[in-house]
Structure formats: C-alpha cells, structure tokens
Amino acid sequence: MNKKDHIVGRQITLVIVGFVLTFSILGVAVKVVLNNQEENYKKLDYLVNQSNAKSESMTELSDSIRDRMLIVYDILNSEDAFEIDEMNMGLSKKATDFINAREKLMSLDLTKTQIDELVDQRKILKQAQLLLAQIVENAIDETGNNQIELISKAREVNAGVLERLNKLRKMQSKLSRHELLDARTSYEETRSQMVVLGLFGLAFSLMIVYFVIRQIRNQGIKLTVLMQQLEEVNQTLEQRVEKRTKELFHTREENMRMGAELDVSRQLQKVILPTQQEISTIDGLEIAAFMQPADEIGGDYYEVLKHDSGALVGIGDVTGHGLESGMVMLMIQSIIRSQLSASSYDLIEMLKVANITIYNNVDRMNSEKNLTLMLLDYKNFGLSAAAADRPSAEMTLAGQHESVIIIRNNGEVEEIDTDELGFPIGLVSDANDFFHSKKISLYQGDLVALYTDGITEAANTAHELYGTERLCKILQANYLKLPEDIKDLIIKDVKQHIGKQKIFDDLTLLVMKQL
Amino acid sequence: MIKIEDDNYQVEYQPADSVVRFTGTLRLGGLSEYAPIADCLTQAVTESDALTLSLKELEFLNSSGIAMFSKFVINARNKAEFKLVVVGSQSVPWQTKSLNNLKRLMPAMELILE
After folding, report:
1. Beta-carbon separation of A368 and B30 below 8 A
2. Number of domains chain A is built from
3. Domain end call among A184, A205, A226
4. Do A370 and B63 touch (CB under 8 A)?
5. What is the DSSP string of A326-388?
6. According to the CATH classification, is domain B2-113 in 3.10.129.10?
7. Which tens digit of pLDDT belongs to each residue from A80-99?
C-alpha cells in the first residue's frame, strides 16, 4: 500500500506543478498584453493631445490672420483717428497672438515636412506683414492711392498663407488618421497576441491535464495489472502451499501408513513361518528353507507341518504385495492348518476349501488377490523300507505353482509341471474341477526343490532372468551335498546373478533330501 | 471403434472385424479401474458371435487384469455358440500359464500362442 500512496503523492505534485506552470504562463501573457495596451493607450492619448494642440494652434494662426485682415479692412473704412489707432493696437495684438500660436505650434511634436512648411511660411508671412503694415501706415497718413492694390495683394498673400495653413492642417489630419490606424493595428496585434497567448495557455493546460490524466490512468492500469499479478501469485502460492502441505501431509500419512503396513506385513510373513525346530524334526526328510522378502513385501508363503506319517509341505505366492497379500497368506495358512488337524484330510478338498474361502474373503475385501498354491504331502515309509532300489517315501502333489524339480539319487533331473494340478486360488468361485493330484515316489538320496518365481524370475541389470535351467544345473551339480549347503549355494548364485539390481520379489527356496 | 488408453496401454475394439487388440502394460488398480475395459469386452460379446482377443503385444498384466479376463471368460462361456479366439505370445512370460488357465475355464476357447 506504501507504493500506492507514493504514486498518488506523485500525481498530486504533478497536477499542482502543471497548474502552477499554466497560471504562470497565462499571468505572463496577461502582463505582456496589459503592458502593450497601456503603451498603446499612452501613445494614442499623446497623439490625440498633439493633434488637438496642433489643430488649435493652426486655428489660432488662421483666425489671427483672418482677424488681422478684417481689422485692416476696418481701418481702411474708418475715418476716426482714435478708432484707427485703437484698431492698430488690436492689429498688433493679433500679430502677437499669431506669433504665440506659431511658437506654440513649433513647440509641438512636428514632422520635418511640417517644420519645413512652417519655416517656409515665414517669408510669406513677413511679406504679408509688411504689406499690411504699409496699408495701415498709408491709411493713417491718408496718403497713397494704391491702397486697393496693396490690399488686394495683402489678401492674396494672406490667402496663400491660409491655404498653406490649410495644407498643413490637412497634412496633420492625414498624419493623425495614419497614426490612429497604426494605433488600431497595434491594438489589434495586441489583441491577436492575447488570443494566441490565451490559446497557447489553454492548450498547454489541456496538455497538462491530458498528460496527468493519462499518467494517472496508466498508473492505474499498471497498478491494477500489478495487483492482479500479485493476487495471482498469491493465489498460486496459496494453492501451491496448500497443495504441497496436503501432499506432504498425505505423503507423511501415506509413508506412515505404508511404513506401518510394511511392518505388519513383514511381521505376518515372518511370525507364521515354520520354525527351524519344526523343519528339522521331520522323519526321513532333511529340509533347508530360505525366505527373503523383497524391498516391497510380496506374498510368498511356505509351510512345513509335521504329522503322524510325515509332513505337509506347502508353497505359494500371493499376487501383488502389501498388507492385503499378507492377510491372504495368513488366511491360507489357517485354512491349511485347520484342515490338517481333522482326522482325515485330502489335498484336493483342502484346495477346494481354500479356493472358495479365499474367493469369498477377497471378494468381501473388494480385492483381486489370488495365489498359486501347491501342497506336498510327504509320507515316509520308515526305516524298514530303506533300500536303494525301493522307494522310501512318497509325495503327493496338488495345486498349481512353479514346477517341482527333482534330482534323483543318480543325478537325473525331473521337472514336474504343476499347471494341470490346480488353478489360481481365489480367482474364480468354481474351480473344483481344476484340482488334481499326482503321486511321486522318493528314493534315498533324492533331492526335491521347491521355489517361488522370485528365484527363477530374478533379473539382473540386463533384465535377464535367472531361469529354471540354471537352477536345475546348480542343483544337479551339487545334489550330493547337504540341503543346507545346496540352499546357500543357490541363494549365493541367485544374488550374484541379480548383482546390483533391486530385488523385486520375495525369494523363497526349499531344498529337501530324502534320507 | 472404441479406444481406451493411457500412457502405458491401449485397448482397441474394431466391431467390423470383431477384434479387441491389447498393447502395452496393464497395471490398473482393481476391478473398478478395469471396468471400462470389461464393459468394452462385454459389448463385443453381445455384438457378435465370434470375438478375437489379440494379446500378443500385451507385455504385462497384473493380477486384477487376470481376474478381469477370468470373469470375462466365465461370462463368455455362458453364451451358446460363441466362438472366442485368444492370440498370445510364448515370448511374453505371463501369458503361457495365465492364458492356459483361461482356456481351462472355457475349453471351447481357441488359444493360439505364437
């Protein structure tokens, strides 16, 4: 908001400066115009005064000449000596008047032509003066016969003077008219100047107003844009912060949830596995088991359940990973174990029950988990049957899982496909027709390997799978060794194959040897 | 033609040829996310008496996808005189076992593993 105040302050300053400038210009203009007008008036006043004075003087001059002529006539007509004397004095007075008027005229502001004219008149005036004086003298003396001739001459001379005076008056009149015209022109010029200056001032002030308005509008627009941008940025920021917070919260929540789920799943997988003690007490069968969960929990399952005549071994792989897979694994373990505790059990029945139970449970969970599951029922024939050429045990296989690999005591490899022995557990509600069993005799020294696809599909950095073939070869090459050692060798080989690649799936391996 | 796709997969149904072609990797979360594809397959079954599913280029299918196909096959086998052909590839790891399981659900289905 500080910025806005600053901008408003600047605009106000600008407006004030603009108006001060406009008024200054207008003030100067008015001052100039007034000065000009005053001068014009003065000039005009002077001209009028001068003109009047000149006119007056000239009238006085004419009058005195005319009066003198009249006095001369009166003198000529009079016979009374006193009267004549008196009139002669009047004549002198008129002469003085003429001189005064002339001096007065000369003292005025005359043009050179006028002065020259006046100077030129002197001679004629002198002549007229002399003539009149002669006439008057003659009249007084009552002499002379040429009086009429003299008067006529004097009249002529005076007429000349009057004419010249008239000329002078005309000249003056013309001059006055001219000067008046000049004054008017000057006045009109001043008026034009005033109009121009006024217009200029008006234009200037309009320009300032326009400029200020434009500035204000531009700043307004800029401010609006800035405000909008700021608002957008704020909004985006708010949204981002909100989103990020949510994400963080969600991620933390998810991490916590996943972490908790991972822990629970790991626990589920671990706690339900058969103990070493259980595994090692099966008559006639030496078992080595290995399970390593992947970074993301899978759903591998294996089981060894001892019973009166041997053991029930199970291996399976629940699809996907996470808590749900762990739960399904737990369910399958319970289903198998619960049926084993019944007085008589059947692998096919077990699988059927497992299928419908898991199908219904998974359906309730709104999940699509299913699993491969193979059950192996091991029956030991006991020491009495122990002989190299006779089977010392029998195993019954049921359920679909990875192939079972058997290395016979002579080193021969048998790979038993289990696809036809079952169907994914929990995939379809009615899979009863798909479960079958297969009996396989075991001889002393025979080696049986069970595993999940975590072993055979273990990939290296080049995405090459470990494969069943390689597993068979390493089993065959080491079948005489102890199951524990064979198991370790295989796991070492698989891990070597995986190298630096991430372990994607659980690794489960069971190596069993008929004793 | 109906087309369902995202960055990872493409499902294309050509009613004229009665072929539904799958390409890419399908890892949708649960049957609910597979519903549009399942609906498309159901539509294809109702529109014709024969249908070919081309899965050769479907490199991966998760368990929900296998569940979806299993349910589809179970429904399809209820339609009399319906001929279903599934074309898969032996070089795609998941297909051999899973497609064989589909055939076991519907023995009348013709499975071609190229």
Report:
1. yes
2. 2
3. A205
4. yes
5. HHHHHHHHHHHHHHHTSSS--HHHHHHHHHHHHHHHHHHTT----EEEEEEEEEE--GGG-BT
6. no
7. 778 888 888 888 888 888 88
How many Å apart are CA A313 and CA A286, to the nearest integer? 12
Q: pLDDT per residue over A21-49, tens digit each?
A: 777 877 887 787 788 778 878 887 887 78
B63/A368 touch (CB, cutoff 8 Å), yes or no: yes
How many other CB atoms are there within 10 angstroms of residue B37's CB atom?
A: 22
Residue A369 distance to chain B (closest CA, Å): 7
Within a domain: residue A258?
no
In-domain check, residue A431 = yes
Q: Which chain B residue's Cα is nearest to A465?
A: B93
pLDDT digits 0-9 by tens, A324-355: 888 898 899 999 999 988 778 899 999 999 99
**Phi and psi, residue A378, nearest 5°:** -100, 125
Hey, which residues 370-409 in chain A have their CB within 8 Å of chain B? 370, 400
Test A427 with B101 for CB contact under 8 angstroms.
yes
Binary contact (A370, B97; C-beta < 8 A): no
Residues A431/A416, Cβ–Cβ less than 8 Å: no
ipTM reported for the complex, 2 dp: 0.86
Taking the CA of residue A370 and the nearest CA in chain B, the distance in Å comes to 7
Pairing of strands A413-416, A507-514: unpaired
Q: 0.80 cut: is pTM over it?
A: no
Parent domain of A133:
2-205
* Element housing A310 (H / E): strand A310-318
Distances (CA, A) of A252 to A249, A257, A265, B69: 5, 8, 19, 36
Q: Which residues of B touch A359 (CB under 8 A)?
A: none
B109: Cβ contacts below 8 Å, ≥ 6 apart:
B73, B76, B77, B84, B85, B86, B102, B103
Amino acid identity of B84? L
Residue with tokens 């000449």: A65
Q: Is A427 on the interface with B (CB under 8 A)?
A: yes
Give the number of other Cβ atoms within 10 Å of residue A470's Cβ.
Answer: 17
Q: CA A358, A421, B104 angle in degrees (round to 5)? A: 80
